[in-house]
Design brief:
disordered C terminus, 25 strands, globular, three-stranded parallel sheet, pyruvate-formate lyase- activating enzyme, Rossmann fold, 3 domains, ten-stranded mixed sheet, alpha/beta
């Protein structure tokens, strides 16, 4: 479906079941269905999270969106996955199962960056861990298929988005297939899912078959044949001379013929039979052997006429190829991110054995009208009553928060927000946000007058966009703010300032806090915004994320230099002082990120000590699926630049010992870390930093009961609260927004 053909979410004719009205909660049992007068569900959503009917929870958003289209939607939350029986509890859905792992990737949710199992789960009643399986998306989809073999399976959410293509899996240390294949699903929905899921529901209700739905943006599916013009990905971004020098792609004879007719086709001279080559290569990879060299004759279109652009597809290196060749994996990652702008992205196709996984272009960003409609649906804003008084930690954190935008154009390589929500900011209207504040004030139990957050993936990208729609549609840059702020970016914060002022002026509202991460390089462009923030919206401490101070790691993160931090700090301190407030910046840092050396971490430790910061908990880099930094971690190559065998090698802190050392540098003040730091400083030739002086990093003495004896009791965790304490001040309780972003 072209961008021009995209419908407003409110333009569909409602399904006949709309006559049943709005459910107070989407039913989780047959008894609830009967109370609503239902004999069946049209759609059943299976989720790895507890069901909280709040617009910060993916299952609630998708469920209410489908309900508003007239469909009867049931919820199966955190089912026992040991058998198919729990997946039958609501009966057979009339249209499809919608499967999601939840608001987080299930592996990130369950394991720390050191691959240790977490004891808790913020999305489960009582914070209890172990209520969802590893790779929940795949397990739930397979159980749903066992329960009702003929019911279409639609998978979506953050786990589906980040695993829609062959991807490196940190927990198994190998490249895994697209989750679409492992889940044996009919279609995978990625990115903001509202447009796709509504269209799928209406088309299935109209009698269309699931395997006929192949034209929706933001979907992936298996495709056997097509009449598109294929473009070899190495013609889009040449990875240099490959070894072995073969073409990894196979094409159907009729497609080859179509390409020959298109003209201007390069000959990739080779020999052999393509299907046999792919099969032999797959078998070799499965057996852990080197892939046999098999060559094929394949022809592609190098250039495509403008009128044929929507009929063109980029063929990526196959699954077998990216498993066998890290350079091709890095190349594929680069292509995937280059083809991420909805304004110019083309479809991608990747061979997996004898199947082609087809990825349509990303979904068109939601309009303000659509965003308002989604967030103004009749959410109960509380957990399902079946949980009783059990506390759900994630709900407690977002209970009084409001999302005003989606997306992020920062492009941080370790973050998955862009891969999921996109880099074009999607905004709600001012009126819609103010209405939601009033709704919280009037209806949510326990409201004390404090809105805990007004933001989104970032705090201050509201209504900020490219100055030109044409430039935005053509742009292929991964970030609008790195290495510097793009001159085409409108950095005007006035709409956000006005929203803040109107929000805090509402009757019954005592305080509006900003808990989302402030993009401080962007904020520095608006002194008025910094003044507004420091004067009215900070509760003593403001969390920001420099992530590193060394040029090596910063260039691989796509984050601004430390000079930008100092500029913002000066503005923030000045504004706080003018407001008569004593307020502090609390910086976050990542240990063991690609591009980081031991010397970088030492420099950061000295900076922390000089500035009086002590980190109570630290986060180590966790290679989440599909992230650019993960491609660096796996391949040692830098996909931010053209990838060749001779291109830049990236320093990667690998191995438990080095990763723990990097975390120890962040917690230089902890006596338990002193033995490992002393050893490292001696090896680095920096014994001058061992001693009891103010200019030295760690003392030469060791307190009793600390050090090696306490080694087994330590360990920070990725995506956990990262607390910093400013020397001489009380401990700062702070919670970092999870880098995986919210499911939509």
């Amino acid at each position: 479906m072209s961008a021009a053909a995209v419908k407003d979410l409110t333009s569909y004719r409602k399904y006949w079941a709309a006559r049943f009205g709005v459910a107070p909660f989407l039913p989780m049992t047959r008894a609830e269905m009967e109370q609503l007068g239902w004999d069946s569900c049209d759609i059943i959503i299976v989720t790895g999270d507890a069901y909280v009917d709040h617009p910060s929870f993916g299952m609630a958003i998708i469920g209410r969106v489908l309900e508003a289209q007239g469909f009867r939607v049931g919820i199966i939350a955190q089912p026992d996955w040991q058998s198919a029986e729990p997946f039958k509890q609501l009966g057979r859905p009339n249209l499809f199962f919608g499967i999601t792992a939840g608001n987080m990737d299930s592996m990130v949710n369950r394991y720390t960056s050191d691959k240790r199992i977490r004891s808790d789960d913020a999305y489960t009643p009582g914070g209890q861990g172990g209520k969802r399986p590893d790779r929940s998306l795949v397990v739930y989809a397979q159980r749903a298929r066992e329960a009702f073999k003929d019911v279409p399976i639609v998978v979506g959410g953050i786990e589906a988005s980040l695993r829609r293509i062959a991807h490196f899996d940190y927990w198994s240390e190998k490249v895994r297939r697209s989750a679409l294949l492992d889940a044996k699903a009919d279609i995978l929905v990625f990115g903001n899912a509202e447009r796709q899921i509504v269209e799928i529901a209406h088309r299935l209700a109209g009698g269309e078959k699931i395997d006929e739905i192949t034209d929706l943006r933001g979907t992936a599916f298996v495709r056997k044949k097509h009449d598109y013009i294929e473009i070899d990905s190495t013609h889009v971004d040449t990875p240099g001379k490959l070894n072995p020098p073969i073409d990894p792609y196979a094409m159907e004879p009729e497609i080859r013929k179509a390409n020959e007719l298109n003209g201007d086709i390069p000959d990739l001279l080779a020999k052999g039979d393509a299907p046999d080559a792919a099969a032999a290569q797959a078998a070799a990879v499965e057996a852990g052997e080197a892939a046999p060299v098999q060559e094929v004759v394949v022809k592609f279109a190098r250039r495509v006429k403008s009128e044929d652009r929507e009929r063109s597809v980029i063929r990526m290196p196959s699954f077998e190829q990216v498993v066998a060749d890290p350079v091709l994996y890095a190349h594929a990652s680069r292509i995937l991110h280059l083809e991420s702008n909805p304004g110019n992205a083309r479809a991608l196709v990747q061979r997996h054995g004898d199947s082609d996984v087809w990825l349509n272009p990303p979904p068109v960003p939601l309009t303000t009208r659509d965003m308002d409609w989604i967030y103004e649906l009749p959410y109960a804003r509380v957990p399902h009553p079946s949980y009783g008084n059990a506390e759900i930690p994630a709900y407690k954190m977002i209970k009084f928060s409001i999302a005003i935008q989606r997306g992020c154009f920062g492009g941080c390589t370790f973050c998955s927000i862009t891969e999921h929500e996109g880099r074009i900011i999607q905004n709600r209207s001012e009126k819609s946000v103010l209405n939601e504040i009033e709704k919280i004030r009037d209806s949510v139990p326990g409201f004390t007058g404090v809105i805990s957050d007004l933001g989104g993936p970032t705090a201050n990208m509201y209504r900020i966009a490219c100055k030109s729609r044409e430039i935005e549609s053509a742009c292929r840059k991964p970030s609008c703010v790195f290495p510097g702020i793009c001159p085409n970016l409108n950095t005007d914060h006035s709409a956000l300032i006005q929203l803040y002022r109107k929000a805090r002026a509402l009757p019954g509202v005592k305080k509006i806090l900003i808990a989302s991460g402030v993009r401080y390089d962007l904020a520095s462009e608006s002194p008025e915004y910094v003044k507004e923030l420091a004067t009215h919206h900070v509760g003593g401490y403001l969390k920001i994320a420099p992530e590193a101070i060394g040029e090596g790691p910063l260039s691989k993160m796509m984050k601004p230099g430390v000079g930008t931090y100092y500029k913002f700090k000066e503005m923030f301190d000045k504004a706080s002082k003018a407001a008569g407030k004593e307020q502090y910046l609390i910086p976050y840092f990542i240990a063991a990120h690609p591009g980081t050396t031991d010397e970088d971490m030492l420099e950061l430790a000295l900076w922390l000590k000089k500035n009086g910061f002590r980190a109570d908990q630290v986060q180590a880099f966790l290679p989440s699926p599909m992230a650019t930094a993960t491609a660096m971690y796996h391949t040692l190559k830098n996909p931010l630049r053209k990838v060749t065998r001779e291109s830049e090698e990236v320093t990667i802190p690998k191995g438990l010992k080095q990763r723990r050392l990097h975390k120890a540098f962040l917690r230089y003040h902890d006596p338990n870390n002193w033995p490992v730091l002393r050893e490292a400083l001696r090896k680095m030739g920096r014994v001058d930093l061992i001693g009891n002086g103010k200019q030295q990093l760690i003392p030469s003495y060791q307190p009793a009961g600390t050090g090696d004896a306490a080694e087994g009791k330590r360990g920070g965790s990725q995506h956990r609260p990262f607390k910093t304490q400013h020397t001489g001040l009380p401990k700062v309780p702070s919670i970092r927004r999870r880098r995986t972003g919210n499911q939509r």
